[in-house]
Amino acid sequence: MTILARDPSVLDPATGHMLRAVVDVPASRLDLGPRGPRFYVIDFDASEESLHDPLDLAPNPEPAPGWGYHDAFAGRPDADLLTNPGFRAQNVYAIAARTLATFEAALGRPVPWAFPNSQLNLVPAAFAEANAYYSREDQALYFGYFKAPRNELVRTSLAHDIVAHETTHAILDGLRRRFDVPGMPDQAGFHEGFADVVALLSILAVPESIGALVGRPSDGSLSSDELTIEALRGSVLFTIGRQFGDAVHETRGGGLRRSIEITPTNEWLRPHNREWQEPHRRGEIFAAMVMQAFLGVWTARLAPILGPAVDRGRVVEEGARAARHLLEMCIRAIDYCPPIDFDYADFLAALLASDKEVSPDDPHQYRQAVIDAFGAFGLRASALKSVRIKLKEWPSYRSFSYAALRSDPDEAFRFVWENVGLLSVDQRFYLNIENVRPSVRVGPRGFVVAETVVDYVQELILSAAEFNAICASEAPAIKAPSSIPSGTQLKLWGGGTIIFDEFGALKYQHAKPLADWRRQAARLAYLVDRGWWDTKGRIGFSYGDSLGERFVALHASGDNPDETW
Fold first, then answer.
1. What is the full DSSP assignment across 376-389?
2. How many Cα atoms are found within 13 Å in the side-chain-facing hemisphere of 468?
3. Which of 130-139, 288-297, 316-325, 545-554 has the lowest mean pLDDT?
4. Cα separation of 445 and 432, whole Å?
5. CA dist., res. 301 & res. 293, Å (int)
6. From start to end of 42-196, where are the E strands?
7. What are the extents of the domains in the chain?
8. Are strands 39-41 and 20-22 parallel, antiparallel or unpaired?
9. Which residues pair with 491 in a beta bridge?
10. Which residues contact 116 (CB under 8 A, 6 or more apart)?
11. How far apart are CA 380 and CA 372, in angstroms?
12. Segment 424-470, tens digit of pLDDT
């Protein structure tokens, strides 16, 4: 399907036209909309109270109704793509379907939504507003449009990075629905940072987006000076929301976000540095670390061929391959992350462990590049949490059915119940098995790994006075923040992820114990500092947003006055 490789403001220097790409999406029967098995495009404009006719992407009756796809937008003039409602419908459908397919290929299984429906609604001209967001309650992605100061109409549905970013919110919500509950600073910023990473790496995995934007496109070759980390970092390749950001912040220029330009620092780790406690900025730190790793891998892959003239095609090939590989690494890491109360060190440990399973040799040193990039921001390899279980005793498999474990939460619960000591699960607290997901992953060199991922969570509701009483008994030096009234209701979380191999053997556990009172006190202090009390005056239950507004709030301006969307 024809899509915009970036957004309407990014032109192909060779032609002067908007930069386009033709991408593969999973084949499926398409109804009017388009409407497929996982996405349904509804072109309703709430501001104008108008509904555009649904697009028919498969008008040909052969080989069967709904299967005769025809790309009606190949070779069409720019003006047609900007004004045709059908193209914005195809653009959002193709990018969303491609993003979901990337996740499912990396994880080795279908990805569910966070709601009981197979189709996510895509609304490409939802309202006249400079925003785009995901709504779990509406089961939809909404893409706004607005007039820029120079009277230019900006449509978020035509921006590849914005569509991929919002689709990632929906996918991540289905994979880890507790990632948006009130947590520590890293968890608060992860949804935005991870969505930026997926958007950028998805675009960089499209060869057209690299080929037209590196060096002078009229040249068939590039000089070594154009391929240094500094030169590549300064290119438009790493800009999120270029047209959107330039329109909203007309005097600023350079798009909405360029996390790649953040200078490595340890300051963000200091809890009293308010700038870096803000979720938007915290998310930018995550994006900066991953994109620094990408730059390191890409330039390392180019090192053997550097010279006076480097073939442009080879540069593009190596960049797209590195982006695709690193994107799959980041996606697979989600399965190995704890389901609640996680931080970036947890993600780094999960990424290293999950990638080692499918790529034991790692010939291009992706894992080392990630370690170096995170290390530059103060997360050292020596500080990583080990996620591999050190078995002092073999788990109990008495009357245990591994076939049932691959799909049955009750069987997974029974395994945890019979091995609470081995797994260090505190039986005082309610435990629920949230997910049981079988996966068959294929590594970059064809190595196949079959696993089952089991997530469990624990929760505790108590008053601040009761929290202090428990701490007085088990951790005397720890108390709830003094600004919390003693009768305030608190919700505490814990949980873990367990990985079984194809034979049912226990491989990994990545746990965040509920009874880690130091972590719980730090979380409460952060939530109070951010003012995240819910509408009933409780802490830890929700952010206090109205129903359906959580992901709208993620895109609202934070403490940084230049930040939005």
1. HTT--GGGPPP-B-
2. 13
3. 545-554
4. 37
5. 12
6. 44-45, 50-51, 120-123, 132-135, 140-143, 145-147, 153-155
7. 2-175, 196-383, 402-554
8. unpaired
9. 461
10. none
11. 8
12. 999 999 999 999 999 999 988 888 999 999 999 999 999 999 999 99
Select, from the ranges 54-63, 214-223, 355-364, the one with the highest average predicted confidence (pLDDT): 355-364
Which of 137, 133, 141, 191 is closest to 39 using CA atoms? Answer: 141
252, amino acid identity = R
Give the whole-angstrom CA distance, residue 233 versus residue 236. 8
SS3 state at 545: coil
- Exposure of 428 by Cβ count < 10 A (0-12 exposed, 13-18 middle, 19+ buried)? exposed
pLDDT of residue 312: 87
| pLDDT greater at residue 532 or residue 556 | 532
Distance CA 559, CA 322 (A): 34
The mean predicted confidence, pLDDT, of the chain is: 89
Letter for the amino acid at 91?
A: N
**509: nearest Cα among 345, 396, 390, 418:** 390
Read off the amino acid at residue 323: A
Q: Look at residues 364, 187, 353 and name the one whose alpha carbon lies nearest to residue 286.
A: 187
CA angle 195, 200, 205 (to 5 degrees): 125
Q: For residue range 34-68, list pLDDT tens digits in order.
A: 999 999 999 999 999 999 999 999 888 878 888 98
Question: Which CATH number applies to 2-175?
Answer: 3.10.170
Tokens representing 16?
Answer: 């002067």
Helix (H) or strand (E) holding 449: strand 448-463
SS (H, E, C) 198-264: HHHHHHHCCHHHHHCCCCCCCCCEECHHHHCHHHHHCCHHHCECHHHHHHHCCCCCCCCECHHHCCC
pLDDT in tens, 156-212: 999 999 999 999 999 999 999 999 899 999 998 999 999 999 999 999 999 988 888
